[in-house]
Write a structure and sequence with these properties.
It is a single chain. The protein is built from six helices and six strands; from the N terminus they run αββαααββαββα. It is mainly alpha-helical. The protein is globular and about 60 Å long. The strands form three sheets. Strands 1-2 form a two-stranded antiparallel ribbon. It has a two-stranded antiparallel ribbon with strand order 3-4. The chain has a two-stranded antiparallel sheet with strand order 5-6. The protein binds zinc ion. The site of zinc ion has 7 residues, from loops. Zinc ion binds next to loops.
């Protein structure tokens, strides 16, 4: 959906990863190891020619949903320990280390190669995005079946749905029906 708001930079990358599945029509982008590999390479997280297997795919989907869970914290949802554990495990598995870059700016980089390293790079990107002041603008759509990660551009950070036209109106109609039963 073109009208859904997207973030830029590191926040945008986290958002794009979480939104590789569209839960509402149930459209999955990462359907097999090949599509995961292509996505990781296209987003500069991994070099071409590194193998990706079924266990990497399983790991990636777990990390993705854990990230969705953490973003839910910006929407006032409870962040579950299982999601925190998944992200911590991904960080450990990729052996993230602090490194000073060329310009002298420190960043987290994985020592592990392949998809495990690429997912560590995504966890590092999440870490970095969380330090930025606009982190709290990345939210989950309040429509329960949707849970799309959207960027809240409203002045007072009050947006609740990925789009008013679809999720907003559907949820309002549902609540209205519920109230007038
Ligand atoms: Zn939505």
């Amino acid at each position: 959906m073109a009208e859904r708001e997207t973030a830029a930079g590191e926040l945008g990358l986290v958002q794009a990863f979480v939104n590789t599945v569209d839960l509402m029509p149930g459209k999955e982008e990462l359907t097999d190891p090949n599509t995961l590999q292509a996505w990781l390479v296209a987003n500069g997280l991994m070099d071409t020619g590194q193998p990706v297997d079924e266990s990497d795919l399983k790991h990636a989907l777990a990390v993705r949903e854990a990230m969705r869970g953490v973003i839910g914290g910006n929407t006032g949802l409870k962040v579950y320990p299982v999601d925190i554990a998944t992200l911590n495990e991904a960080a450990v598995a990729s052996r993230l280390r602090m490194r000073f870059g060329r310009g002298g700016k420190p960043r987290l980089e994985p020592e592990a190669a392949g998809a495990v390293g690429a997912l560590g790079r995504l966890v590092a990107t999440l870490y970095s995005a969380m330090q930025a002041p606009d982190w709290e603008r990345l939210k989950l759509c309040s429509s329960d079946p949707c849970r799309w990660a959207f960027y809240d551009r409203s002045r007072n950070h009050s947006s609740r749905w990925c789009t008013m036209a679809s999720c907003g109106n559907r949820e309002k109609a549902r609540r209205f029906r519920h109230k007038h039963k």
